Amino acid sequence: MTSLASEMFCRVDRVCRHLPVALNTFLVFSITGEVSYLVLVEAPLEADLKKTQWSAWWKLVHLLAQYFMLGNICWNALLFLRTSPSIKGVFLGGEGVGQGWRYCYSCETHTPPRCSHCYDCKVCVLRRDHHCVFFGQCVGFRNYRYFLSCLLFMWSGLLYATLMNAEVFIVILKEGVTVHSVLLLLIPWIMLVSGQVSARAFAFAFIADTCVVGFLLVSAFFFFHLFLLFRGQTTREWYSSRRPYNLGLQGNLRCTLGHRWYLSWLCPLIPSPLPGDGINFKVTGSLEPTQ
Ligand SMILES: [Zn+2]
Ligand SMILES: [Zn+2]
């Protein structure tokens, strides 16, 4: 009975771990599908709002931009998930510990500076930033590039989708700010279940809402990580007010995005080897908290 319960718990745990990735994938593809539909079928939604019909070329430019962003989001997400940032399989240099090294009792090994144990991944992670609940994996030395690029294209994609969906808001609110239109935008699910709106109106309102909320959320994450990138800090170092590994703007960009930092964000397939090994870091400031 106990083993059955533990097996059930393991299965539920596994499903819960994959749920955010599945939900995000569903949302990303739904939003892309909706904006493609807006470009191909509904653009312009109201002929009198836009003076001219969109030409085939202009629609093609929009579609190419959308699928470029979608491709980058998916590819970076895939590479992020497939690139383990942990110490597994990494030669840490024997027992020759130096300044900043610690002993991890869970992994039973000495670990280098900036490395810390993740209790979700159950392993120590090199240059650990944080455990990303949306991907169910840690962000560390080897996969930070893919995490940042994915955030960049999610941010630009959601900005684009929000602007495209502005017309949906205009159409919904065109007849005036009524209780019906406000409720459709605020609680589309309840309006659908109670039979107040059609499935089509619900789908547009739901996706438009998701774009706005997603854009605000991703903006906060994206600009926070840009701020950390420019300062050469990890989220953990920012929490503890330490900034000992700052190499200047260009040095920090190179350490995170690799030698081809000026190109690597454009496509995850552009080779951009990271300087260093994730074990040894040049110390340029005090290892003690600055406050
Ligand atoms: Zn550990
Ligand atoms: Zn983790």
UniProtKB/TrEMBL annotation:
Its main location: membrane. GO terms for cellular component: membrane. Its EC number is 2.3.1.225. The chain crosses the membrane at residues 21-40, 60-81, 144-163, 169-190, 202-230. It is a multi-pass membrane protein. It is an enzyme of class 2 (transferase). One of its GO terms (molecular function) is protein-cysteine S-palmitoyltransferase activity. This is Palmitoyltransferase. The lineage of its organism: Eukaryota, Metazoa, Chordata, Craniata, Vertebrata. Belongs to the DHHC palmitoyltransferase family. The keyword Transmembrane helix applies. Keywords: Acyltransferase, Membrane, Transferase, Transmembrane, Transmembrane helix. It comes from the Eukaryota. The DHHC domain is required for palmitoyltransferase activity. InterPro entries: Palmitoyltrfase_DHHC, PFA4/ZDH16/20/ERF2-like. It is found in: Membrane. Residues 101-240 form the Palmitoyltransferase DHHC domain.
